[in-house]
Amino acid sequence: DDPSLEKHFKGHRDAVTSVDFSLNKKQLASGSMDSCLMIWSMRPQMRAYRFVGHKDAVMCVQFSPSGHLVASGSRDKTVRLWVPSVKGESTAFKAHTGTVRSVHFSSDGQSLVTASDDKTIKVWTVHRQKFLFSLSQHINWVRCAKFSPDGRLIVSASDDKTVKLWDKTSRECIHSFCEHGGFVNHVDFHPSGTCIAAAGTDNTVKVWDVRMNRLLQHYQGNAVVNSLSFHPSGNYLVTASNDSTLKILDLLEGRLLYTLHGHQGPATCVAFSRNGDFFASGGSDEQVMVWKTNFDAADYDNVLKTQKSGTSVDGTHHSQQSEMECGVHLKKTKPQDPGRNHYHQQEEETIANTLEHIVGQLDVLTQTVSILEQRLTLTEDKLKECLENQQKIIQNKVN
């Protein structure tokens, strides 16, 4: 089934900049250039709440993992934490000196990372609402910053045309991806935490492996890509573009699955719900749309169960060796060849895929070993230097 439009929310008075679902999918938050934050109910006949507090455009919104708080960032240079209830109380954080373009909670809900036009990324504690530290190596506006699923890394995207990867503990930039031809509007971590996807003004979406720091996939579009979101299964990516379309990319097959037309004018933001059965989009047409995913029902259930054997969409038997664990996609088996036993054919395909996976793992190991060797050499050199310096100091003392 194709994705279908489920709900259409109208209430903002200017372009929508950001959308996010609460954990239980009962609520949807949106931010807008009209300086308001809105909380929409997914239940019929339930009213929407308009929260006023920011003095200028709201650039980004996100529910905390528990759904008890909503964070927002604004052109008024503040970050606000809201209680999404009737009263809509909020507290403001001030530390940035420019527009705040991105807010993101860590998966444990304890930390918040924000990105700003002041070229910095800042990390805060949520409960004490205290500023912890800044990351500042970007040389232009920072559009987006996200925690990795395990909270150990931060990825950021900037108008300096780079995507940077940071270690949260050491607070150091561990890698810069510089291969973008334009500004980088948005970046997100794959649910597994092993790769990132970045959207740019050069009309591309690029998927990078953060373990090997190499480009895995490259999708060329016809318009600036403003936003993207991974499906929780990790198999799909949805994007929002200036040509008013939303696109669903199949990451396992490496191809475009659907192009959806709903917005009049640029589609500015898009996000999957936490369990992936809906996605929401916002546009410069002031509208928020909720779409039913539909397309992934069969294989997403299989991935979740990671069962040994399942039936694929077209009814052919389909070996399902916990695809997500191996990171190898076992394609549908070919129609049965009358001259061969179907079972043997399947076994051969499974063995071939397993071998391919083992070879892939060996590559990773080889590269890891070479990195470790380089580090070891560096350490040995440092030790040698220290010993030589010590000798010099002792000699100087003796002399």
TrEMBL record:
PROSITE patterns from the UniProt entry: WD_REPEATS_1 (PS00678), WD_REPEATS_2 (PS50082), WD_REPEATS_REGION (PS50294)
SUPFAM superfamilies in alphabetical order: WD40 repeat-like (SSF50978)
Function: May play an important role in centriole assembly and/or stability and ciliogenesis.
InterPro entries attached to this UniProt entry: WD40/YVTN_repeat-like_dom_sf, WD40_PAC1, WD40_repeat_CS, WD40_repeat_dom_sf, WD40_rpt, WDR55/POC1
UniProt feature coiled coil, ranges: none
Per-repeat ranges for WD: 9-50, 51-82, 93-134, 135-176, 177-218, 225-259, 260-292
The protein's name in its UniProt record: POC1 centriolar protein homolog A
GO cellular component terms, A-Z: centriole; ciliary basal body
Gene: Poc1a
Biological process terms in GO annotation: cilium assembly; microtubule-based process; multicellular organismal-level homeostasis
Organism: Nothocercus julius
Recorded superkingdom: Eukaryota
Signal peptide: none
The entry's keywords: Coiled coil, Repeat, WD repeat
Similarity annotation: Belongs to the WD repeat POC1 family.
Pfam families with a match to the protein in the record: WD40
Bilayer-crossing regions: none
